Amino acid sequence: MSEPSNRRPEPEIIPPGAPLPHGSRVWVASDMRGTQQIYVRPIGPVGMALLALGAGVIAAFLIVFLLGAAVFGLAAIGVLTIIGIIAGLLRGPAR
């Protein structure tokens, strides 16, 4: 029993309708280069906090971008209004 076994692990076959094992799950993916095991676990409290922090940062950037676009749009409307007033004054009274 002290010798390490050199045989490859076999994938677990779960029959249809059988409940899946709880906790971490192992998926096996095969491609041309070989087989890889993919471990899937639920997100813990630290991961959830980091996910919420990342979502908050993205939301803050979107709000800053939208506020910047609104300020730029108001400035453009103001400049166009001033240009229209000046053009109207330079053209003279209506005939």
Description of the molecule:
This protein is α+β, with helices and mostly antiparallel strands and 95 residues long. Helix content is 49%, strand content 15%. It contains one helix and two strands. It has one helix at residues 45-91, and strands at 25-31, 34-40. The chain has a two-stranded antiparallel sheet. The mean pLDDT is 82.
Tell me briefly what this model is.
By secondary structure, the chain is α+β, with helices and mostly antiparallel strands.
Strands, total number: 2
Task: Report strand order across the widest sheet.
Answer: 1-2
Helix content: 40-55%
Please trace the helix and strand order, writing H or E for each element.
Answer: EEH
Strand content: 5-15%
Spatial separation of the terminal alpha carbons = 109 Å
Largest sheet: 2 strands, antiparallel
Poorly predicted sequence stretches spanning 5 or more consecutive residues: none
Instruction: State the shape.
Output: rod-shaped
Structural class: alpha+beta
How large is the count of helical segments? 1
Our Rg estimate from Cα atoms comes to: 32 Å
Q: Mean pLDDT, as a whole number?
A: 82
List the helices and strands and how they pair.
Elements: E1 25-31, E2 34-40, H1 45-91
Features:
95 residues; alpha+beta; rod-shaped; 1 helix; 2 strands; two-stranded antiparallel sheet
